[in-house]
Amino acid sequence: MRRRPTQADVAKLAGVSQATVSLVLNGPSNARARVGEESRRRVLDAMRETGYAANPMAQGLARGRNRIVGVFTYESVFPSDGSNFYHPFLVGMEAAAFDVGVDLLLFTSAPVTEGRRRLTDAGWNRLEVADGCVLIGRHGNDRELHELRERNYPVVYLGRRDGDEDGTAPYVGADYATATEEITRQLMELGHRRIAFLGDLSTAPSARDRVAGYRRALESEGRHPILLAGDAFSPDEAAEVIADHRATAVLVGTDVDPVLLRDAADQRQLGLSYALLGEPEGRPWPEGFSGFRIPRGEMGARALRLLAATIDGDDTVDPAQLLPCQIDQGHTLTAPHLPSTSTSPARSPHA
């Protein structure tokens, strides 16, 4: 199938910038006048030669018919609490929306069913108020994504997505695999031989990426993983299981309260090292902890800009973007300590 011509193709043939093409097509009258008649003629000639047809949604966005983009979260809506996990994403999107010149619309009318929502349940009349939508949440809906594509409704995921039968939807995510591998290697360099992973073991891409980075670091040194589901244990139970495995360090997922875990481990005099795999959900970063921080503000801004490019039919922008996480050295990455023998009787380790 022949690729549809884009504004970038028109700009190249006309010998002008893509911004000039956009001004000729969509800019306000005072801006179009600055382009000049000669450049305008070359752009129009290039459009005819390439067969370029402007995306009607993009025209609506740029000419002011809507100039609105949606935001939808699968798990919950954005609260106003600044410590909420989603809040920095929205702050980044707000800043980028100001630069791009659009308004944000938060879709909140879709009903919650079994803890999740579907964007399309809000109704197409509501969705078409916006020229496209940023989708946020661990568990996207592939069937809904197919339906959105069938209607040519532009969407961008905030968070890495796997490909499906229709290909990979545009996304901006965090490079959890690389960050987890790096922090695990730091622990090994400090002398830790048994490092536990306590966190999300689901099939969500963000969970699988963290586990993949952990495994990659350990396997390069011939070490065995100790995988513990964060939602399966209370802090006391988790500390006991970590002691049973004779681990001296633990990678703490975002679904685990690291302060409660440390308190439980300290009561057993385990002397653990800790590394957080992102900000704990619903809590601020605990003082002094080591680990990596998720670039949530930048992810939100990039996702909004990627959506604007998708609406505009600009295929020069990378549709699959992973941003590096920031390592926070903190004070909980230390050399291993031998666990106290005063803990409860140890069960046979599984690794």
Describe the protein.
With 351 residues, the chain is an alpha/beta fold. It has three domains: 7-63, 434 Repressor (Amino-terminal Domain) (Orthogonal Bundle), CATH 1.10.260.40; 68-174 and 297-324, Response regulator (Rossmann fold, 3-Layer(aba) Sandwich), CATH 3.40.50; 175-293, Response regulator (Rossmann fold, 3-Layer(aba) Sandwich), CATH 3.40.50.2300. The chain has 13 helices and twelve strands. A six-stranded parallel β-sheet has the order 2-1-3-4-5-11, sandwiched between helices. Strand 1 (68-73), helix 6 (87-100) and strand 2 form a beta-alpha-beta unit. Helix 11 (235-244) crosses helix 12 (258-267). Residues 28-32, 56-64 and 339-351 have low confidence and may be disordered.
Give the overall silhouette. Answer: elongated
**Approximately how much beta-strand content do the residues carry?**
5-15%
**End-to-end CA span:** 51 Å
| Percent of residues in helices | 25-40%
**Unreliable runs, pLDDT <50, ≥5 residues?**
28-32, 56-64, 339-351
Number of separate domains: 3
What is the mean predicted local confidence, pLDDT?
A: 83
CATH third-tier fold name of the largest domain: Rossmann fold
Order the strands across the largest sheet as they lie in space.
Answer: 2-1-3-4-5-11
Sketch the major β-sheet. Answer: 6 strands, parallel
Tally of contiguous helical segments: 13
Structure classification: alpha/beta
